[in-house]
Structures are given as C-alpha cells and as structure tokens.
Amino acid sequence: MTIIENTLAAKISIEHDSGDYPSGAGSGPRKPKAFVEEIQGHVIIGHDPARAPIGDGFYLELLEMLNDAADESVPGIRVIKWSHTLGTNKVTATVAEFNAARYEIAKY
Q1: CA 16 → CA 11, 20, 37, 55, distances in Å?
Q2: pLDDT-wise least confident of 38-42, 48-52, 74-78
Q3: How many other β-carbons are positioned within 10 Å of the β-carbon of residue 37?
Q4: Are 8 and 74 in contact (CB under 8 A)?
Q5: Domain spans of the chain?
Q6: What DSSP string runs through 3-62?
C-alpha cells in the first residue's frame, strides 16, 4: 500500500466573547480563543488486491498508514475515528472524530 494523496489540514476558528453577562459577573470580554473546528481533506491510499488481499492485517496496516499521514499533516492531532470508502484499488479516508488537545495553534 502507498499513500497517493494527503490533503489533511486543520480548520482553525476563533471564538470571541462578547463580555455581555446577564448576572454582571466578569469584567468584560475574555481574550479570543482559537480552536481546531475540524480536520478537512482526505487521504487516498492505493493498494493492489492481488498482492495484499483484504484481511490478514490489511486494516491494521491501513490504520497505521492513515495515522502516519495525519501525524505528518496535522501534528498534535489524535485521530479517534476514520471514515473510509474502499474502492477496487484504493481507499479514501477522512477524519470523523479527533482530539486536538496537543495541537499548537500559531498566534493569531
């Protein structure tokens, strides 16, 4: 199996606080907070069913390759769940669930 395409990227959003609290608690708005909203893109992995039939470690190797691709594109993101489509000679996968606790967001 080989990685044909890797377009994974983190979509960063910024949460702004209006500072408007009904109870009057707080002393105005807090600083804006950046967070990873989603992981966009996909990973396409090519495979030759004749050389590596599905089964006997296929999905374990696939998961390892997908996680390596994520580590390369969005370091610090831990993928919890992948969504994938299995084609005749390729697998297309997207990130379905992730944890971004260790992802470093550049200053905005």
Answers
A1: 16, 11, 14, 48
A2: 48-52
A3: 13
A4: yes
A5: 2-99
A6: EEEE--EEEEEEE------TT--SSSPPPPEEEEEEEE--EEEE--TTTS-SSTTHHHHH
Lowest mean pLDDT among 38-42, 54-58, 89-93: 54-58
Residues in Cβ contact with 82 at an 8 Å cutoff, skipping those fewer than 6 apart: 63, 66, 93, 94, 95, 96
**Where do we find the tokens 């807090």?**
30
Give me 44's structure tokens: 């396409």
Collapsing DSSP states into helix, strand and coil, what is residue 65? helix
3-state secondary structure of 1: coil
